[in-house]
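Handoff note, outgoing to incoming analyst
You'll be picking up this chain. Sequence as last confirmed:
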Amino acid sequence: MHSNLSDLRIVYTTALGEIPNNKKVLEFVWPVIFSVEQLGYLLESSSTYRSACPI
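Most recent structure output, in case you need it:
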C-alpha cells in the first residue's frame, strides 16, 4: 500500500510538471490526493497497532 501511495504522489507531481498542463484542474485533484495519503497513513498505523496489541 505504501508503494501505491508513493506512486500516486509521483503521478500527481509529474502531471504538474508536464507542459502544457491545466493547473486549475490539478488543483481540484489535490484534496483527493491529500485525503488518500491521510487514509493510507491511518490504515498503516491501525494495522501496526492491531498487530502489536492482539485483542
